[in-house]
Structures are given as structure tokens and as C-alpha cells.
Design goal:
The structure holds 2 protein chains of 2 kinds. By secondary structure, chain A is an all-beta fold. By secondary structure, chain B is mainly beta. Chain B contains no helices and 11 strands. Chain B starts with a strand and ends with a strand. The mean pLDDT of chain B is 96. Classes of the chains: A mainly beta, B mainly beta.
């Protein structure tokens, strides 16, 4: 199975900050990577697909980059609604594993 | 509008089985990829299996092989997840998700809480 490792596990930041979350795959997954946001008690919400494509309806302050084994999710200017947990997921090969999550907290 | 609506919460005894449903509306159910993802209390997301209804073949995470059965009924646009031989560590929220021509989760169900307790 492909292992997905996110860092950091927890990130404390303030409204207006620029933040970056990293996701590493244990083997190359080309660009078959998605990023999701999840709030407590809710289903995940797709933000980014194919590593860098913005899902329809997602604000442009979210962006993704990378290919192969190293990927990043950047939020250019944090808004109050962005404090949540973020997950990466590879969909290159079965099983379609997730990273362990990054909890973005208010500083 | 593409939507997924899941069945309600379940409380089960260890050793029993549970079957969770996921009804789709909108889109093209037969050719969509339906994934099942679970989230234990306070934990992260875990992809456990999926199916493309038209192809009928389900894929499973190896550690659940033999305990999970994923099926789909094209006539009712409903996918099902059955978990057998339930254990306390199967207590989790189970989500279905669908993607059009892709296995990424573009649309998600609201989740079904399954509690396994004696």
C-alpha cells in the first residue's frame, strides 16, 4: 500500500496568515492527489484534485502543487472559516490511502 | 445536483453484521466510482473499499478483505456496505463518496454512525 505522510500534524496560525501543509507519498503517484477539508461532525469537502486543480466553488486562496512524491496545500490568507482538519489522499492505486490529517488551529 | 443520502445510525453487538446504504441522486450512478471511507472516533479518514456499479467488481483494503462486502443496485442507484463479524474497533462513522470518472471523492454522503457495543 502507498503510505501518505502529512506534516505538520497540528498547525497554529492567525487570520490573514499564509500557511502550507505538506503531503509525501511513499512512492510516485504522478499527480493523482486530492486535498480535503473536514470540519467536526461533517463529511470531508474536496478542495483540490490532480494535485493542483481547484474544485468548483472553492475560494482561490486555496492552491495545490507538486507531483511524484511531494505535494503542498497552501492557503494564501487564512479566513475564520478555514480552521479545520485537512487531509490528502492518493488515488493512483488501490487502496486509495489518506494522510493522517493536519489540524489547523487558531493561534 | 449530485447527492448521496446514507441510512441512519446503527448500534450492533460484537460478532454481528451491519449493512449501510448510500442512495445517489443526479449524475450517472452506473459509471461513477463509489468509495467507502470510515472514521473512528477522534481519528483520521480511512479508505476501506469501493465499486463502479457498471463493472460490479468491488475493491477492498486488504486488512478488511473477507469482512466487507460492497455492492451496488443500479435500479435504485444505491450502494451498500456490509461489515461482518463486527468488533468494538469497527465503531466509526462510515461515509460513502462518489466521483464522476474518478476515484476522488467529489460528493459525500452525510455519514452513518455505527456503534459496536456489548
Amino acid at each position: 500500500d502507498i503510505q501518505m505522510t502529512q506534516s505538520p500534524s497540528t498547525l497554529s496560525a492567525s487570520v490573514g496568515d499564509r500557511v502550507t501543509i505538506t503531503c509525501r507519498a511513499s512512492q510516485s503517484i504522478s499527480s493523482w492527489l486530492a486535498w480535503y477539508q473536514q470540519k467536526p461532525g461533517k463529511a470531508p469537502n474536496l478542495l483540490i484534485y490532480e494535485a493542483s486543480s481547484l474544485e468548483s466553488g472553492i475560494p482561490s486562496r486555496f492552491s495545490g502543487s507538486g507531483s511524484g512524491t511531494e505535494f503542498t496545500l497552501t492557503i494564501s490568507s487564512l479566513q475564520p472559516d478555514d480552521f479545520a482538519t485537512y487531509y490528502c489522499q492518493q488515488y493512483d492505486s488501490f487502496p486509495y490511502t489518506f494522510g493522517q490529517g493536519t489540524k489547523l488551529e487558531i493561534k | 445536483q449530485v447527492q448521496l443520502v446514507q441510512s441512519g445510525a446503527e448500534v450492533k453487538r460484537p460478532g454481528s453484521s451491519v449493512k449501510v446504504s448510500c442512495k445517489a441522486s443526479g449524475g450517472s450512478f452506473s459509471t461513477d466510482a463509489i468509495s467507502w471511507v470510515r472514521q473512528a472516533p477522534g481519528q483520521g479518514l480511512e479508505w476501506i473499499g469501493g465499486i463502479i456499479p457498471l463493472l460490479e467488481t468491488a475493491h477492498y483494503t486488504q486488512r478488511f478483505q473477507g469482512r466487507l462486502t460492497i455492492t451496488a443496485d443500479e435500479s435504485t442507484s444505491t450502494a451498500y456496505l456490509e461489515v461482518n463479524s463486527l468488533r468494538s474497533d469497527d465503531t466509526a462513522v462510515y461515509f460513502c463518496a462518489r466521483g464522476t470518472n474518478t476515484w476522488r471523492g467529489e460528493t459525500w454522503g452525510q455519514g452513518t454512525r455505527v456503534t459496536v457495543t456489548s
